[in-house]
Amino acid sequence: MNHPGEPAVLPPSLEPLVPRAFSRLRASLGEQAGQLDAPSVAERVWQVAMASDLAIDTLVRQPALLPKLLADDGAAPFDLPALTALNRTDWPALLRRYRAAESTRLIWRDVLGLDGVDDTLAGSTRLAERCLQAALAALEAEFVQRHGVVRDREGREQRLVVFGLGKLGGEELNFSSDVDLVYTYEHDGESDGDRPLAAETYFARLGQQLAKLLDEMTADGFCHRVDLRLRPYGNAGRVAWSFAAMEQYFQHEGRDWERYAWQKARPVAGDGEAGERFLELLRPFVYRRYLDYGALDGLRAMKAAISAEVARKELADDIKRGPGGIREIEFLVQALQLIRGGREPELRGRRLLPALQALVEAHHVGEEAGSQLAGAYRFLRALENRLQMLRDAQTHALPESVDDRARIAIALGYAGWEALRGALDVQRALVTAEFEALLAPRRRATDADELTVYWRALPESGDSTMLAAAGFEEATAADGLLRDLARSPGVRGLSDAARARLDRVLPALLYGAAQSSEPMLALRRLLALLHNVLRRSAYLALLDEQPAALARLVEVVSRSALLAERLAAYPLLLDELLDVRVAGPLPGREALVAACTSVAGEDGDAEATLQALNEVRQALSFRIAMAVRDGRQPAGDSAQQLAWLADGVVMRVLALAEEEVAAAHGRVPGARFAVLGYGSLGGEELGFGSDLDLVFLYDARDGDSAHSDGARPLEAARWFARLAQKIVALLGAVTAAGRLFDVDVRLRPDGAKGLLVSNLASYTDYQRNRAWTWEHQALVRARGVAGDASLCAEFERVRAQTLGASRDPAALNGDVVSMRRRMRAELDRSDAAAFDLKQGDGGLVDLEFLLQATVLRAAAAHPALLVPRNTPGLIEAAREAGQLDAATAKSLHEAHALLLARGLDCTLDRRQRRVACDDAVDAARAAIRSATRAQGLDFGEG
């Protein structure tokens, strides 16, 4: 870090420093000392001597290093010495000299500005890893000779796994840091040598010798300080742990600080593949599946303990633990990762700066704040490295010596200590502001104070007039509900910490409900949700820590019965209230489908996959619902997105069903299968809670004589029937996140009397020769949603031939009118007070029938009518084909948009799709009636 400024003034006490360094180097270099006279060499050595006594000491002890550094400025790491049985006694010296040489190379490049701080941190990490791996490999070979190889019960070889935690795990090791290690192994067992040892003893001894080889102080110093205290139970715990024992510990006794520690864990030596398997097992402990604002409590506790230590030991000038120091940046980034990393895998990185950038890109940290924090982090880490490079001391404290202060400042390019200290103060103030904002106490509206007094007095006392004053007209009823809640076992059984959270959250919820348009309705919905989250501390923590989420919750539940029900039934959706994507643009078809098709349960478990798929569907449909409720996009876009989401669900369920049927019966060679979507799914106008109209199609290369190739073969027809049944069952299976979709298969050939699955030939014959006109109408909106692409293309060909056939217009109109009148008589729920948006006179189904009749009548002459499936597309295609004039098409677009939006509003509020007529609804109905009659379709009573 070279800081432009006034020329540095060297204090008189430092004037002998560099000449003394040169004198020592000349003496060690002997005949090669002349190279120090070159101005370019002298300048570089002067800078290094000013910054580091360690570097000069190492160059004096190892004279061969300086010529190597001068040759390429230390661009390439030095070669690691071989540790063999023949040089066993030299291992400590070889490792220590290598570490000193490599450290000097890092100092040389850092001080001369050849490497940035990121490079130096990475170089320090690689150095520690190389020493660890070389030392462990040498010791392992020795142990194998003495005790054999550890094997588990199945005879599989077991090796030590060395996890690096802290900055070693994060690949950001500082220059003179210790290394935080935890020793583990995958399975228990015993070594197979002449002197066998149990796995725990074997690996504990191996780990202890590894630590000694690296850590023990000798005449050559140390290689790396080793800290084993981050293992379970610290120094009181066993040295090496099996994966099973570790997992048991974290399940039952893991603490908040250990989540932070293991967040950065990485296998750094030994069996790396086994280590990665363990970290995958540990992931649910580190990263929760929900937004985990409870992590802030752990962070507050750790920060309080550190602050007490800083005050007790007068560590205000400690740039790691003091105010605005490195640890505050680390905690800030790690806390945000822990809060959101369970739901956003891209935030789970071990390295701080990439993790900070990921938080910025995900909009959880502002761009300016992210840039400032990254700059502060690099500043502090560069200064930390220079403090340690001076004499290889593990220090984070600003020096007290005037000379040391001057050396640090001058080596970093500042005119003197005051200039450096001023720059440091600016950076620390910035960090403190950001960190304190993260941990700021929760702020509640002062208006809720009286409600707090009221709630805390329940159930024994409490004055309901406070509820009336707050805005509850039915104060007595509200008081009864709240007393019941206070008496409930769920509230009485809360821990002190959870009760404290509830006591902060509930008055704020009451205040918010009182301010809503329907306070009692909002209160009942909020209490239903609270009953479900009382035992889930993470959700109380979210509402406690994030007043914005709490306010959003009140707003949502007071305006949408559907969203209130879903939040109460599936509290995981509370996370969506804070997801920045909720207020942003909605995903397109590709992203929605990918979100579903990429879902996989643990170890490929079908039940877990369904659960995860349901959670994805719930979250995405919730996001779409929020866009409708907030009026952020047209209703047609939301209906289309819901259909695309269903496409993705069906694709994933098809793959899951195929795996299960194939596992039992093998596959039918050369056969193809497709899922067709009819109705609102095919027309890409799905509603909230809509079922799926599905038709299943297959084609076997050898016809129905084909059989599957499994141990229990089935003929093709039965195999695909089994597959279709499995799809319907999986879509309707109840999981903890609800069921995916109800399925209606009555639109298949011959309806409920027909086979569940049709082969391509019979389907084609049915559509051409036996289908009713209403079935051809249904075909207008049908499309392939999942399965074999070539079979979907075959379906498109059959559909085009069927719909493009010439028809008698009068007979067609008669069939369409007759069917519509029958439907209306059976299904229209309109009355004098309300209009049925779907089935009523001039409603959405009238519009669908109009467009379907247009396609069936005119597609032979205008094939472009066959392309669209959704209503807006069909209206446009009819206009372009001359079947509708521009004015009529415009009025139909407006009518469709209005009625669809009113329908979605009804479903969001759990109302039947019936509305009181107003001018807008009357105009929409009139436009649809006028257009149908103009086409010779009178859907009236007849």
Automatic annotation (TrEMBL):
Residues 452-942 are annotated as: Adenylyl transferase. It catalyses: [glutamine synthetase]-L-tyrosine + ATP = [glutamine synthetase]-O(4)-(5'-adenylyl)-L-tyrosine + diphosphate; [glutamine synthetase]-O(4)-(5'-adenylyl)-L-tyrosine + phosphate = [glutamine synthetase]-L-tyrosine + ADP. It is an enzyme of class 2 (transferase). The keyword Magnesium applies. Residues 44-280, 551-797 form the Glutamate-ammonia ligase adenylyltransferase repeated domain. Residues 300-438, 819-900 form the PII-uridylyltransferase/Glutamine-synthetase adenylyltransferase domain. Keywords: ATP-binding, Ligase, Magnesium, Multifunctional enzyme, Nucleotide-binding, Nucleotidyltransferase, Transferase. This is Bifunctional glutamine synthetase adenylyltransferase/adenylyl-removing enzyme. It comes from Lysobacter niastensis.
